[in-house]
Design goal:
Pfam families: Bac_luciferase. The chain has a single domain (12-363), classed as TIM Barrel, CATH 3.20.20.30. The strands form 3 sheets. An 8-stranded parallel β-barrel has the order 1-2-3-4-9-10-11-13, surrounded by 7 helices. It has a two-stranded antiparallel ribbon with strand order 5-6. The model has no long low-confidence stretch (mean pLDDT 92). The chain contains 11 helices and 13 strands. It starts with 11 loop residues before the first strand and ends with a helix. It has helices spanning 36-50, 73-81, 100-113, 128-132, 141-159, 232-244, 264-274, 289-299, 313-330, 343-347, 355-363, and strands at 12-16, 54-57, 88-94, 119-123, 167-170, 175-177, 187-188, 193-194, 209-213, 224-227, 249-258, 283-287, 305-310. The protein is an alpha/beta fold. Helix 1 runs parallel beside helix 9 (313-330), helix 2 (73-81) packs parallel to helix 3 (100-113) and helix 3 (100-113) packs across helix 5 (141-159).
């Protein structure tokens, strides 16, 4: 099954920016002299200038596998929110170990700070190291699925707890908001309760864009299903299944190591000599930029986007922005976001109506 194609194929491109890269030895040859915040600002700035649709920020209780800097992902996204004007910003926040009210507030605040470019990669960390940070134990499969769906549903309800026109700023009466348009949520999950409303007005996008692995079983609760499979045919089949399950968009996960200062095979051999790059279940390309562009063009028949995981950010990102993205743009397969556009605008996702406003309209 191929993806719906009403207006011609077009591929959105996301970039994972965690640490120094996806290869466990990535940090051995950093191209940026400075690490930390300066490196992150440079990476995201380069990705935006190069035309990427969005950047993602992985997270976890341990340092990145490939080395590098890892404060909390939402903090990293907030850091670059006012330094960019068109690229989407998608931190990973783990539903299993993050209090839902604070999670929803953080993401709504990011959407306000970025003028509507926030997204959420739904994390599902369930190991002992993650749960130790909150004094809990790993969940079984059924409890894990319920926890994730409970948190996503609660976050979406909280984003709707303020109607779009709740803030009135009426100087004559001294009223800042119309309290009739601010709603309690009263959500109850297996491990939490939330009364609401949110302390932050509704996000500019209405609902922050939600990305989640297709294996989490969120279906239409996620706007974008992330498909991680090691073979192209398996990616195509999984993408079709994700659409059938209700996902509006599907992105494939692809690791890349490209010809740069050295041929890709030689680069890989040197890196693997320090620490082997074990399979992570993703499609992997090691080779030329032209061959990667051809691979992505083929994937565009099945998916709406691709999230790229460079082996070494400092080495592979310049090749991606200098050769791969321009090649796709020349074929009409990729278009950079417009300055001032929300991420939903860029992705072609509608701005959702507020559930409470809809209920009021329906009841009258």
């Amino acid at each position: 099954m191929t993806r719906p194609d009403p207006g011609g194929r077009r591929l959105h491109l996301a970039l994972e920016t965690d640490g120094d890269g996806a290869h466990p030895a990535a940090g051995q040859a950093r191209s940026r002299a400075a690490g930390g915040a300066a490196a992150l600002r440079g990476t995201v700035g380069d990705a935006e200038a190069g035309g990427f649709t969005l950047v993602t920020f992985a997270d976890g209780p341990l340092p990145p596998r490939g080395g590098g800097w890892r404060p909390e992902a939402g903090t990293r996204a907030a850091l670059v929110s006012t330094l960019t004007d068109r690229i989407g910003l998608a931190p990973t926040l783990h539903a299993t170990v993050t209090e839902p009210f604070h999670l929803a507030t953080q993401l709504a605040s990011l959407d306000h700070a970025s003028n509507g470019r926030a997204a959420w990669v739904v994390g599902a960390a369930n190991g002992a190291d993650a749960h130790a940070t909150v004094g809990a134990s790993p969940l079984d499969a059924d409890a894990l699925h319920r926890e994730i769906t409970d948190v996503v549903d609660t976050a979406r309800a909280l984003w709707d707890s303020w109607e779009d026109d709740a803030v009135i700023k009426d100087v004559a009466t001294g009223r800042f908001l119309d309290w009739h348009k601010v709603h309690h949520v009263d959500a109850e999950g297996a491990r939490f309760t939330v009364k609401g409303p949110l302390i932050t007005p509704r996000p500019p996008q209405g609902q922050v864009v939600v990305l989640a692995a297709d294996t989490l079983g969120l279906g239409g609760r996620a706007d974008v299903a992330l498909v991680r499979r090691p073979e192209r045919d398996a990616v195509a089949a999984a993408a079709a299944a994700a659409r059938d399950a209700g996902a509006a968009l599907v992105f494939a996960e692809v690791e890349v190591l490209l010809d740069a200062d050295l041929p890709a095979a030689e680069r890989l051999a040197r890196l693997d000599g320090a620490a082997p790059w074990q399979p992570a279940g993703r499609l992997r390309h090691v080779g030329s930029p032209a061959a990667l562009a051809a691979l992505l063009a083929g994937l565009a028949r099945h998916v709406d986007g691709v999230r790229l995981h460079p082996a070494q950010l400092g080495t592979d990102l310049p090749v991606l922005t200098g050769q791969v993205l321009p090649a796709l743009a020349a074929e009409g397969l990729h278009r950079p976001p417009r300055p001032g556009a929300t991420l939903r605008d860029t992705l072609g996702l509608p701005r959702p109506a507020n559930r409470f406003a809809l209920a009021a309209t329906t009841s009258t």
